[in-house]
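TEACHING EXERCISE
Course module: macromolecular assemblies
Task: Read the component lines below, then compare them to the predicted structure of the full complex.
Student: A.B.
Group: 4
Components provided:
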Amino acid sequence: MANTLFDKVWDSHVVRKVTDGPDVFFIDRHFIHEVTSPVAFLGLENRGNSVVYPERTFATADHNTPTINQHLPVADPLSANQLDALETNAAKHGISHWGLGDENNGIVHVVGPENGITLPGATIVCGDSHTSTHGAFGAIAFGIGTSEVEMVLSTQCIMQPKPKKMRINVNGKLGLGVTPKDVALYIIAQQTTSGATGYFVEYAGDVFKEMSMEGRMTVCNLSIEMGARGGMIAPDSKTYEYIKGRAQTPKGADWDKAMKYWETLYTDEGAEFDEEFTYEASDIEPMITYGTNPGMGMGVTNSIPTAESIEGGVETYKKSLGYMSFNEGDSMIGKEIDFVFLGSCTNGRIEDFRAFCSIVEGRQKAENVTAWLVPGSHKVVDQIKAEGLDTIITNAGFVLREPGCSACLAMNDDKIPAGKLSVSTSNRNFEGRQGPGSRTLLASPLVAAASAVSGVVTDPRTLLTA
Amino acid sequence: MAYDKFQVLTSTAYPLPTENVDTDQIIPARFLKATERVDFDINFFRDWRYNSDGTPKEDFPLNKEIYAGSKILVGGRNFGSGSSREHAAWSVYDFGLRCVISSEFADIFKNNCLNVGVLPVQVSAAFADTLFAAIMADPTTEIKVDLPNQTVTLVATGEVESFAINSYKKENMLNGFDDIDYLKNIENEISAFAETRPF
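Instructor-supplied answer key:
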C-alpha cells in the first residue's frame, strides 16, 4: 500500500489503538522548558509516579531568561523560581539540563537540532506549539499541553487521534530577497490562520528541496500558525549532512543502521492526502503582516485589503486593524517603526544573522529604531563571532544580546512598549504578544534589516543587488 | 490533576463572538510564571477584561453582571489558537466555566480542555449564530449541554444540535478520569514497545 511520510512515522509509533478513541502514541524525544513543565512534575509526584525514561527527556531554560547579563542572578523572583524549579526537577529525576550559561543552552527548538537530538523518523514533543520546527528533519513533532508533559514523563506516551494529512507543494525558484520566512507567511496567508486545523502538513516541491535545513526549520516552525499540528519535510542528503557527527546523533554501525531506516522515509508514489495545495515560487514576494494573526500577511509592497475583500467576519477584521491603528488600503512601505526584533525559534539561527548582516553591512541603524538582536543559542553566538558578523553588527550600530526566547513572547524584560510598532522575525503578531499594547509586523530577517536601517517599513529588494 | 465529573450542564452563557481568539488573549505570557496550578482565573482574558490601570473594561462580556456566574462560554470561530499553554484551559476552568461552545476550535486548546475537565463543544456555524443571537436578545438565555446524549439545546426554544466526541474521551469526562490512569494500566505494553525503538 502506498503510504505518506507522515503515515510511515506515525503508524510505527502506535503502541495500541483505542476503540473509538485516540492512539496510544510513543514519544522518542521530549523537550521541556521552565514554563510548561513545573506543574507536570508536581502532578507526577502527587501521583507517586517517576520519570520512566529520563534519557528521552531534555531540559533547557529559554522562555523566561534575560538576554543581557546572564552571568548575574535572575532579578525577577518569579522567573528565577521557574528556572530553579526546572533545574531541581531535572536533577531529581536524572534529566539532562542546559541552564543559563551552559554552552548548550538556547531556545529549545534551536538547541535540539544543534545537538543531534532531533532525528528523522523520530517522534518529538514539547510543551510548546513551535515544536513543529523539528519536522524539518522528517520527524513528527508537535506541541502539547502540561497534562501531556506529565503523561510523557510518567509513561513516555500520549493519547492522540491521528490528524488528517495535507501536502503543500511550492514549485519553481524563489526571487531575490525572498526567504523561507516569506514562503511560510505566504502559505499561511493563503490558508488563513485556521485553514490547516486538524491536519499534519508535508511540504514538498522544488523550493523545499533547494532550501537549507535552517530554512526548512523556519517553515516547519510556522505550521502551527495556520492551525496545523505540525509540518514535515522528507529527509535527504542535506538532512544527513546537517545531523552527521553532532553530539547525540548515532555513530558508526548505529548510524548505518539508522540510515537504512531513514532512507525509507518519503511519501510513496500514489499515496493519498486528505488535502493538497500547490503554489508557485514566482508568486511569492517578501512578506509582511498587517493584522493580529499570522494569516493577515501580504507582499510588502501591497496595500491592506478592505474588509469586504477578505474571508471571515468583518467585525473581527476591523477590531484587528483598529488595534494596529491601521486603515484598509494603507500601504505598509514607509510606515515609521520603533523597534526591530531579530531572533526566536523561527528566525534565530545563523542563516538569519547572515541575512540580516547582508543588508546592514556598511549601513547604520536608523536613530528612531531600537533593535534587539537575540541569537537562538550559544552555538549561534559562537558561529556569529567565528564569521565576524558581530563586527558588522557593532559597526552598523547594533548590539548583540544573549540567547533566549526574548521579545517573541516577552516573558522576560524584553517587552515592546504599548503602542510601539515592531518589525519582528518571530512567529506571532497577536495583540500584546510582545508586551501589553505592542504592535507587531511579522517579517523576514531581510525585511527587518532593511527596515532597521531605514527607520520605516522597507522592501529589502531596494537595498540588495542581485 | 483530577477534575469534577461532567454529565449534564444547564447554564446561561457568556457570548464572545470575536473570531480567532488566541491563547495569548486567554492568558497573556507574563502570567505564566507560576510553578503551581492555582488561581489562573485572576488573569483570564487579562488585557481584554482590564485597562492598563487595572480598572475593569465594563463593556467586555466577562465583566458584565448580567452574565455573571455562567458556566458556559460561547466563543467565535477558531477559538484557542496559538500557543499550547495549558494555562489557558486552566484559566477557563478556574473562572468557573465547564464548557466552551464554538464553531471551530484550535487542536491543542481543544485537547488541553478535554484533559482538564472543560468540555469543548463544536457546533455548526449556523447554530453558533443562533446561540449568539439568543444570548444577545436575552442574557438570561439558558443552554443545556447533555454529554451522555451528545446534544446542545437552546432551552427556551428547544432548538437542538448534536456534537461529536469520541467514546473514550466521553467516558473520561463523564467519570472524571484522565489519560494517565489509562496509560499507567498498560505500562508493560509500553515498555515492551520501547524496547523495539531504534533510538
